[in-house]
Structures
1.
Amino acid sequence: MLVLAAGLWLAAGQPARAQEVVTLQATMILASDQPTAQDPRLDNIEYKLRRTFRFEYYKHIGEGSAAVNLPGATVLNLGGGFQLNLAAADAGKGRVRAAVQWMRGGEAVLNTTVVMSRGVPVVLGGISHGGGTLIVTLVAR
């Protein structure tokens, strides 16, 4: 219900036009100082994470993606009882605004709104988990 309300809020005031489809992709990562093998799936983002979070190791935990009409809402299941509830809308200039609710086992652990340039990941997170910190990267394509 909260995602639907956020989607309606994001759509308010938008001029009538053909709906645009965007693909939203999220990757969940565990950052920690416990040794783990480097994951090639994180090669394009790990250096940015190191500068921000200052952990030594980053492990791919799960991911999800979905195509959604703008404005519209979707749910991305990330595995391990985690999911993102997303309400997305056109933010102008090729950008996408998304109201994000990060859920763990049915409980919200993060609520935020982000504006994304297409193809540029935004980093969400910093929630404690298993001796480290969970991070989610979200990108609109």
2.
Amino acid sequence: MNRDVLLLIGQTDRPEFQPLAARLTALGEEFGVECLAHADLEEAEQAGGEEARLVLLLESRPGEFPPKGVARFRRLVPGTPLVLIAGSLCQGEGRTGRLPAGVIRFYLYEVETALLPELLKFFRHTPNRLALPATATEEDFWRDASFESADVETIPLCRTVPKRAAVVAADPAMRRLLADSESLGGPAAELASLDELFCLAAEPSRVLIDLTHPVKEFLPRFKEVAARFSKSDFLIYAFAPTPEEIALLGAAAEGVAVLPKPFLRLAHPCAGTY
């Protein structure tokens, strides 16, 4: 049978993974990809995975896929990309740990905006981020990936996603810091650029932007963002903004708050209430 094979390994019957498993099965039918599911690594090993072109590990609890088990399974599929999708109990490197070489991690809330667009390219046999060598590390994956918004298709998972914040920051450390500050409202979407913001399937409750360009340079782009996300509030971190710059940002949209870096709170008539 000359078909691509996509392996799902994990508890696909868990409520958090059911929409993803259903969507992948539907995509498989559409693109002629055989989607096979196994409950754990041992079951997948017994079935043999030599024909798999992509393997998705659905991690529902920390330690579900120990490095030794992944390395043993890797010997069955030495050249196949392995993607770990961390569920709600496995968010953060402290819970999923450092990944073995060749394993790429996505968090479940990143599936719609980050993973599924790449899977579409994979199904179509066009260049994609998942095509890096199996020896690549997670850092290689993100460093080498070029995000082209024009190529992205947003694929909803046919479920209601709670409104949440979106964090836009080019610096990974700043992105994580701002996302952590929003954790009480649910996991924030972590985005490296405004292009990625435009690919969100649902409008976030508010958008946090780490501004690294001069305000006057950023202003035209911000007006586009504000028009697209008219129901969102905005929190903009700018380096030592002048009163004039704060007024310009505040006039560009409703519900805008400006905070100067490094994180000194600034009261201003234009600032939104949080």
3.
Amino acid sequence: MNNNRYSICWLQICPFERLEGGLLKPNRDDYPYRLCVLDKEKSFAIDVKSGVSYEYIRTSLVYFLNGEAKKIENNKRYAIMELHLSILGIDSKDYEYANNILNDLRNGEEFINGNTISNEEYLEYINNENTNKIKVKNK
């Protein structure tokens, strides 16, 4: 779902590492895409499952756009690489959660910064969330 300011989309929430020569590389391998509500005007995204916010960094596949690289700090996660909903799909429950967040944003609601936990704690949270989704069927 899109409008001029907000969109419900998939974003990768990950930290960056600084390579030799000062180049920045996002750690995209360890961090999966997350369903988010993106506020394009204020450049932040709300993770639909956790309800926390992350600064949005505009990138292309290789380059940062409009000097976005200057914003990046060590050990901090950022939302990057926007994918349209049709690429990964969305279930009705998650769409409902996303619309609730969208309404909260329109009403001026503030969200907690997602970088209050470490990258290790975040990965543990994500892995636990994915493990809990898998249901074993007993015969």
4.
Amino acid sequence: MPKEQRKKTLDLFTIGDLIDKAIVFLATNNTITTLSLQKAIFLYLYSYAVTNGYDFNNVLRMASFEPYRFGPFSDAVVGQAETLVGYGKIRSGGSGEKQIFGTIDKGLEKLNLSKDEKRLLTNIKKLVETLEPMELTFYIYFNPLIDQSLRDYFTSKSEIKDSLLKRKDTYVRDLLKKGAIDEETAELMIYGNNQDTIN
């Protein structure tokens, strides 16, 4: 994990609650693949930590995120999703990376989201609904708004980073067309980071 930040921390129960609420929110009136769910929860916890002044390294560690074949991955997120399926809060189909989660429950008010939580989750859900899973993955791998050392760490075991880099121009163009990034972010993704090169 990147070097520790000296910021306030969250406890494990609060992080578990954030993950549960995020999974239900993201799956409500929608379906979401395991890959997109992993990336969305990663992005949500990172954004939540940064917005509220928490140590994002500690938050992601406590949520069990690790570098994996497709970037940031957490067994805890899979476990929480399966638990929510067991409780009937969401439904699932398929398996592995092709597993999808969804619900037709319209009772989002039962989640008791704070204003910050709702704003962040609404933005992330819009992103998930707009982008294909690999586009969302690219967005996290190369987004200059996400801490560089964090991106480097979580893509260190990636099996797809080189292929994403080879298609960087296409991905950036698609993200721009879909309104997921602005022109300045697009320029930074393409030209602004010399560390993101193919080995």
